[in-house]
Each structure stands twice: as C-alpha cells, then as structure tokens.
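Our consortium's second objective concerns turning raw sequence data into structural hypotheses that experimental partners can test. To show how far this objective has progressed, the report includes one record in full. It was chosen at random from the queue rather than selected for favorable results. The single chain below, 623 residues long, was entered without modification.
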Amino acid sequence: MRDDMWARVEPLLDGVERPARYLDSEWGVRVRPDASYRVALVYPDTYELGMANQAVAILYDILNEVDGVAAERCFVPWKDMAAAMRAADVPLHTLETLQPLRDCALVGVTLPHELTYTNVLEMLDLAGIPLRSVDRGEDDPLVIAGGPCAFNPEPIASFLDAVLVGEGEEAVLELVEADRAVIEAGGTRADRLRALSGVPGVYVPTLYVSADGSAQPGCGAVVPADAATPRMVTKRALKDLGSVRPPTCPVVPYMDVVHDRAVVEVLRGCTRGCRFCQAGMVYRPVRERGADDIVHDVMATLRCTGHDEVSLVSLSTTDHSQIEEVLRRLSRSLEGRAVSVSLPSLRVDSFGVEMARLVAGGGKKAGLTFAPEAGTQRLRDVINKNITEEDLLGTIEHAFGAGWRRVKLYFMLGLPSETDDDIRGIGRLVHKVLDVARENTPKDQRGGLKIGVSVATFVPKPHTPFQWEPQLTLPEVRRRQEILREAMPRRGVDLSWHDPDVSFLEGALARGGRELSDVIEKAWRSGCVFDAWTEEFSLPRWLAAFESAGIDPVALASSERDPADALPWDHISSGVSKRYLLRERERAVAGVTTRDCSFDGCTGCDACGDLGLDIVLGGASRG
C-alpha cells in the first residue's frame, strides 16, 4: 500500500511549494504497519503549524504504546498540493504509512480555533469521507474532534461523529478501547457511537437534538434525543498531571516549523480569573508537574531531539510554585551547552522579570511580553486583571534597568463597559511606559529601545463570565481604533492591530449553534479555506454564506444574551458552574475583583468539586 501511494504522491511534489510538508520518516517517527486499529491524528492546518501542537504530540505518543493500535499524523495540504491531489485522484493520507484517511478506523481532529472549521471540511473532502456524519456509512471512519472548540462544538457538530471534551490523555484510551470492543464484536456504526457516548467526556451529536428556545440567534437548548443519553457532558481532566509522562522523543521535523524548539509542559490550568479568558476557565483547576519531573523531561527531550532551545509552557508559567528552583537547576545543568530556555508567559511584577533574568543568564536578552489588557484601573477591575499601573511601571523600570531594551504590551478593544476614556487610557499608559523605559536606559543605548503595542478585539467566548456580552460591531471597532491611534505616542512605539474582520467572524462562529453548519459548508464551497492566514481570509465570502443561509452574523456576534435564555453549549460542562460565571459577571458590572484561588483560597467556581479533584501542589492546597 505504501509503495503504491508513494508512486502516486512523489510526482506531485515537484510542482508545489515546501514539499517537505508532505515527506515522512522524520527523526522520532513511530511506524506500526501491522497494527489492526489505525488512528489518523489530524491538525486542520499546514504541517508547520500542526507540528507545534502539543495535543497531537501527546496523543501520538500515548496511542502508539497500545498493542494493536497505530496513530499516524495528517495535516491539511496547502492549496497547491490540494489541487494537485484532486487532479491526480490522490486521497488525503497519513504521513507515516501513506494510509488513506478513509481506511482508518478513527480520524481524530484537533480544533484549536473557529477559523479552522472550513479546513476540517477540506480535509474530509480530500479524504473522500462524506462531509456530514448522517451521510457516512459502515465503511467510513469515525470522525472525532477535541481541543478548545470542543467546549461549543455545535457550529461544526453536523460534520463530526463524536467530540471529546477536555483533556485526552486518559479519555482517548477509553475511547479507543470502547470502539475496538464493538468492532471486534461485529457491531454497527450506530453501536460504535452509542458505546462512545458511554465514555465520560464524549459527546455524540446525533444523539442530541435542538430544542425550541429563544428566537434570538445563538440561543436554544440542545437536549438528549432519548433517556439513554446523558443530559450533560462534563469535560475530562487529569487529576494528577504527573501521572502521564509527556513525550520526550517527539518527532523532529525536516523543515522549520512554528515554535521550532523542544516543549515541556510545566503547569496546566490558570486561576487568575480574567473574565474574558476562556482558557483560564475551561482548563481549571491548576495542576503542576513536580520540579524533578520537569528537569528530567527537559534534559531527556534535549538529548533525544538535539534542539538548542526549550520552552517551559503553560497558561502562566511563572505561577508554578517551584519555577525558580526549576530555572536554577536547568541553568546549572545546561551551563556551557548553548541551549536557551524560554518562558512564554510572564507575570507583570518584578518576580516575572527575575525569572526572565534567570532564563537569559549572561547572554543576549530577548524582548519581554506583558498583557495589561486595559488602559485604566477601572476597566482592569471589570475584567479582573489584578494588576495596577504601578505594577507595570515598576516592572518596566526593573526590566530596563537590568538591561532589557524591548518590551511588547498586549491590550484589548471592546471589553465590556469600555469607554472612550478607557481607550485613551491605553495611550496614557504607553506614554508612561515609554518614559520609564527611556529613564532606565543609558543615553547611548536608547536607539535600540522598542515598545511594541498589540491590540486585539474582544471576542465573548463560551464558558466565560462575558459569554452573554455583545461584541463590538465593525464600524465601532474602527472608530475606537482611531481614538487609540490618536492617543498613542508619535515616536518609539510600534502599534499593530489584530484584524477586526477576523475577530468579528470568530465571534459569530464562537457563539452559534447547529444552524451554522450550513454557513460553514457554503463558505467552504465558495473557496474559504485557511481562513487564519491573512492572505487567504475573505470576509465577503463568509458574509455571502451567512446571507445564503438566512443568518445574520451581526446578531450572533453583537447581541447581548439574556442569562435566562438557553445557550447552544449549555449541555457541555467545563466544570466551572454557570452560577459562578453569573456571579463573576455581576462582580464585573460592580467593578469588584476576585482573588486568585491558587494563592488566596477557594472562590467557589466548582471546578475541583464537580470533577472529583482534590488538588495538592507544592505542599499547599491550590484548587
């Protein structure tokens, strides 16, 4: 099979850009040609993005340790390769053995964000798998999705056979075991889906129906079709992050990829409680890996891969209770080896800068990144960003006094209750940051001083306290951008925007229900693919798809939701109760902050109790 497929694929590579995207046999690859149960792990974007995804690497490693199971990787080919494959009638296949996806038992898809939805349809079409789950037959694979978008799977539910909500390390083994048992017993496709619905954390859309609800777009309950189906699907979460050893010999790509470095997860979850942040809600509670495990995994991964950089990743790495010890131990172990350690997230305080100093050692200091999010204390209190202007300016003073010359600041436009004065407050704050940076930089070095300011548009996401809030309309976004542009320093600052058209579409897709399946399919058929790539994104095509389906995207994105109305994702539990989200929304209206339960005691979000978790980290309870 492999040789036959390669004979068909190889001639296509001369005519496409970056042919290394489609080659196999990289260092660290796992090949199990005799396995009877085959899983294709698909990242719905190009190779260079997918190879940086931790979920794919973790599941690849776990599944390939199971007797009789082979997990192989697949990525969506770029448009030139997709056209060549269609012209030559070459089906989409895995990298390891060139197995056609349609011949696998299971196709597992990671859904990192809403703009990959049309890529999922592109993948299915290239594989020769019917787009809609109801059209698939006994010989078609089960298409199962997971990832951040699993917390509102309804917009893409019609294209999926099942959805795994939450963390997959344990659940994927149960899912595969349940499916194999039905196959071996001679069960039907319907039997397989019913068996999967019995695995905690697995949602099977065909076993649920949309109930009559509010006429407002994006409202209306999804309920079980029969009494045998669970009313609520609760996310899976590992109780002990150290119980599953992460891959220390991952696949090493031939070509440059995004985040081309070794990666070691040190912490999962975040309880700082930013009210706009979906990840901070759905990945609760906080769980740490021990310092010994982290150091071991870093050294083992570097030995196996040959990388000269390792990133210690999490939502908030410097919140790890032993991070200083970890960095000091790594500094000693890596001394003289020309290997750098990076932290993707820093706290806005002197501790964060001290951690960056430990990482930099005596070498060149890269830029620092901080996220004040809002320009005034009033609005930072609304969003529960528990930092002050004094915190930020003190951090900038400490950093530039210690030799840093570059810093990047992240802000948002359109946060709930934002006023024009809040927007001008961003400009005032950046002026102060620039002044402090200059004051703490020798005159002969001020030419290299850089302040970057990146501004995103707020998107109200499911399972957050702001899930009921409206998103700015596009004309209002552009009006507020002009206010900010006028408020910014004229020199010394690089100001950039996240495309508001993309944020608008993200908001419409994030808060919709099954009615969006037709929109997504119409958009894909009109040529929408790789929507996250700036040069490929086309809002007019998407607007035409919405119009053709009779759905108003402005109403979806920019209407305030009534908390009394059912939401399309109410049957999916993130572990954080709606009661807590509503209470946080009320505190936001009042401008009252909520403490971080990792350090100041439980705030009653229910993430630990509902999941049966009793989290003990670093010698202290943090749940």
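The partners drew two points from this record. Residues 615-623 have pLDDT under 50 and may be disordered. The CA atoms of residues 22 and 189 lie 31 Å apart. Both points have been shared with the crystallography group to help prioritize constructs.
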